[in-house]
Amino acid sequence: MASRIPPLLDPYLRLPPEASLVLLSGVLGSTTNWLVHRYLNSLLSTTSNLIPKEHEHEHGHDAPDVNGASVILVSFLRDYAFWRDGTGKLGTDLDIFTRKGRFIFVDGLTSLFHASHGSGPKSLLDGATRGRALTAPTLQHLRKELEDAIARVQRSAPERPAILIADQLDLLLAASGDDISSQALRDMLLGIRERVHSSIVTLSVDEPLISSQTTSLEKHHAAFAVSLAHDANLVISLRKLDTGTARDVSGVLRVTSGGGNHGIDRVVEERELLYFVTGDGGVRVFERGQ
């Protein structure tokens, strides 16, 4: 089984503060997939890793099941099988949590530009997974599907905090042509955030998408990235080594406080770490020089 939560990352993967936004940014070659897998493992867990350390002695090793959160994951670049297999290596079975009503997957990949028929992509969302599929790259459709998914998990487990994870939400800017602006996408996200305990968003920050800003897509993408960094209380960014590749280092992980951290009762310890993703999906996070 792959290593679950690297100790140096454990403080950042706990249940986020209420009304907060966590931004995970990556680039080509240093994607955030492994971080999302570990967020899923941490948030869905029913052990004491969601309890603040100062209260762990009150629960011991027999922490009640209520400590886990409910999660709505919408992903635009990866299908359900990818997330299920990745979290399975960490000991978290998404099929089980879906049957319990604590996890809902919204597929933004397989049917985004066409409705599924018969045993095609729609079959991935039937049966045990009980997921939903986006069939049009519009904000109205996305908002409705997310609102329905949030309402479902809140009915199934009203005592649990509901967490939204939006993976590569920025893809909608490219998929919709000029129909969706960065401001409209941000406004939609703000509305959805009001319905959940907290939100986690991943997006790409490759230099051509952020620095060039010669096309309307690049301008909208850069504006969306900057606005989320301003709204977030925690930003975890991944990038490749400045010196190139290394055999035992996959990239650099930087933790910073976002512009939205004011008023949040949790101090963000800013730091820069190195990480290494192994072939079996395990991750090692360490200080420079270790």
Averaging pLDDT over every residue, what do you get?
Answer: 86
* Strand proportion: 15-25%
Tally the beta strands: 10
Class derived from helix and strand content:
alpha/beta
Q: Helix proportion of residues, in percent?
A: 25-40%
User: What is the H/E order?
Assistant: EHHEHHEEHEHHEHHEEEE
Instruction: Output the number of helix runs.
Output: 9
**Broad shape:** globular
Rg calculated over all Cα atoms = 18 Å
Architecture overview:
- The protein is an alpha/beta fold and 290 residues long.
- 30% of the residues lie in helices and 19% in strands.
- A hairpin with a 5-residue loop joins strand 9 and strand 10 (283-286).
- Helix 7 (182-193) packs parallel to helix 9 (216-231).
- The chain is globular and about 50 Å long.
- Mean pLDDT is 86; it is low at 48-66 and 116-128.
Keywords:
290 residues, alpha/beta, 9 helices, 30% helix
In short:
Helix content is 30%, strand content 19%. It has 290 residues and is α/β, with parallel strands linked by helices. Strands 4-3-2-5-6-1-7-8-9-10 form a ten-stranded mixed sheet, sandwiched between helices.
How is this fold's topology laid out?
Layout: E1 21-26, H1 33-44, H2 56-59, E2 70-75, H3 80-88, H4 94-99, E3 103-107, E4 132-133, H5 139-156, E5 162-167, H6 171-175, H7 182-193, E6 198-204, H8 207-212, H9 216-231, E7 234-239, E8 251-257, E9 271-277, E10 283-286
